[in-house]
Write the structure tokens for this entry.
Amino acid sequence: MILKVLLTAGVIALVWFVARSRGRIDPIKAARDAARAVSEAQAARNPSRSPPPAKIEDLVKCPKCGAYGPQGRPCGCEKA
Ligand SMILES: [Zn+2]
């Protein structure tokens, strides 16, 4: 009788330990997945916050002053 109670208590403790250790890992993973989903949804809703890589222009060195600026646009030193 006592052995049966101890066995039941042991099984309950084992289940509790497994549930607790799972509960420790899963919320972090769930939070990470949720954060990723939220950031992806925000990026899809707000494209201006994270501009696409295609919009990034190559910088070219000005032969006169050595300053780097966007290609095809006159350097500030030429305006003066
Ligand atoms: Zn220049």
In short: Strands lie at 59-61, 68-70. The mean pLDDT is 81.
